[in-house]
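To whoever is on call:

I kicked off a structure prediction for a single chain this morning and the downstream step that reads the tokens threw a length-mismatch warning. I double-checked the sequence; it's 373 residues and nothing unusual in it as far as I can see. Pasting both halves so you can look.
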Amino acid sequence: MTDGPLTRYRALVDDGSLKPDPAQELAAEKLNSLHHALQSYKPKSGGKGWMDRFGLTGKYGAEPPPLGLYLYGGVGVGKSMLMDLLVDSMPERATRVHFHEFMRDIHGEVHRMRQLPGSDDGDPIPGIADGIADASILLCFDEMEVRDIADAMIVARVFARLFERGVVVVTTSNRHPDDLYKDGLQRDKFLPFIELLKDRLDVLQLEARQDYRLGRILGEAVYHTPSGVAATAALDAAWNRLTDDTDPQPDSLTVKGRKIVVPAAAHQVARFSFSDLCEQPMGAADYLEIGAQFCTVIVDGIPALGPEKRDVARRFVTLIDALYEHRSVLICSAETPPETIYDGDDWKFEFKRTVSRLVEMQAEDYIRQRHVE
């Protein structure tokens, strides 16, 4: 048997890679118990035997699955790191995937199956879920977040089938289950899934004493000028540090029924070009949603702006105000230093405040602040 998550966690503390943290150790203990329970666990097969047909499986058949874990807390408290200790301790029995990527693949498979001949009357969800269940005993999801009604309905049905098949789930999230898809359209249809999650997963809040991602930012420049090859390379390096070298994938947000495209997102880090954010018809509500959803925002290519770009400058002022309000970290490349980005008369007063905030947002004291959702 390989070392469990608790042994691995304590080894990281002993060698100085991590500082002792009671909340993290408690989470590691729970993951360790799950690790041991899974060693001999065998979920029931996909087919229906005679006990299934007579409704006896739950009473006399395959053993009940171990309770999974829903680990939630703020940005940088070590949720993903702890979950990965479990995955690494049982690589042949666990599948680990970012929740956004999982939902993207589910949507793609639903579309593919609906294009097959004779699929008009078929429901692809059970078959898709069965394929997942056949491949893994333990599914680990990073950053569970449900943002639209289509995802809400699909994820509820997929998870219900996975649980029916005895798959054990561990997931991280920034939100308590009760806050998933909060204020979403037709959320009442999603509430039974939340109750199912709380029934099948132990819910544990993780509140560490420090942001474990600070070490990846502190001491590093976050404002790179001038724009160019070197600045772009610095932003690429920042992305890799903050997302553990995750391949960037597109995402989207919905604000008042409008879709905001996020060109690249992973691990609560979003990357945009300046044009994506400030040369499009976007307003305060859009920027506030971006600030709420992403603790770090990377912006490529902030140009020097003249009087003819006063509307663009106004959007940039609003963007910085929104990121500042949510204490999001801004990492950017710019053609000029903050004080010379804009030389127009319109928004001149407001831009002085923007310059002040751009300077403050580079400071260690700002970066250390907790992200405000």
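Update from on-call: the warning came from a stale cache, not from the record. Cleared it. Sanity check on the structure: The chain has a mean pLDDT of 86.
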